[in-house]
Amino acid sequence: MTPPISDSPRVVLRLDRISRRRAGRAAVQDLSLELQAGQVMGLLGVNGAGKSTTLSMIAGALRPDSGGIELNGEDFLEQPELARTQIGWLPERAPVWAELSVEEHLDAHGRLRGLNGAALRQARSAIIERLELQPLARRLAGVLSQGQRQRLGLACALLHRPPLLVLDEPANALDPVQVAALRTLIREQAAAGTSVILSTHLLPEVTAVCDRVAILHEGTLRHDGPVLADDHAALEKTFFGIAMNGGTAPARAA
Ligand SMILES: Nc1ncnc2c1ncn2[C@@H]1O[C@H](COP(=O)(O)OP(=O)(O)OP(=O)(O)O)[C@@H](O)[C@H]1O
Q1: Which of 20, 21, 22 most suits a substitution to test ligand 1, by most atoms within 8 Å of the C-beta?
Q2: Any ligand 1 atom below 6 A from CB of 248
Q3: Letter string b/e over residues 168-187, b meaning 16 or more CB atoms within 10 A of that residue's CB
Q4: Stated pTM of the model
Q5: Mind listing the domains of the chain with CATH numbers?
């Protein structure tokens, strides 16, 4: 029998009241969020609001003290190895080994994610071409500029075509040409069904590429709602209302 066709969107990531203390303080508290397939969510908040802590928990690099994380319906905290194949993570400061070339980085990342032989070579050339890294392919990471390192970090996150991209301030150190290329890349990933959660301090980044925005303040969710394309004024009003006054209670827009 043909199964009933469901038009409800597939949830790729579900955070259920996750909390994490750092240095004796609540860095993230009781955070619940859902991200659907092909959705791009921007995570905003002032310095220290808890964005990187949240993204590190989603990427499996930091374990919540309490709460649950589901990845494609699986219990991620029970199966942290899912991160290798299901998640592409660009941390706030993408770690690089100074003495490895760009190609060697991609090979190492690919092997960690189970790619080998022809599949690895194919994935490596595809991402080098897509991110226009050909001129840098043989260069050692130690001599790359900050923006070039950021592009290498992005390439490592995308290499294995994960269904979820977790990008911590991906536009960091990129020049305006590369920022525009990053926007195109993110929308392209979303159109192909990849879900993206990204943190940023740039409000125009959110209105340019995100479908939804979540705003954290002092570790708690103060806003979760849709982004109206290019409506900077509405986003600024919401963001500054929270940043300056802390907001009132966690709010969820439709
Ligand atoms: N490695 C760490 N050790 C101890 N405390 C930390 C560490 N990293 C972050 N914190 C604390 O956790 C809280 C949340 O920090 P987090 O880095 O998640 O915020 P953020 O929103 O990403 O900030 P920013 O915009 O400055 O990057 C802050 O109080 C911070 O001091």
Answers
A1: 22
A2: no
A3: bbbbbebeeebbebbbebbe
A4: 0.93
A5: 11-95+163-252 (3.40.50.300)
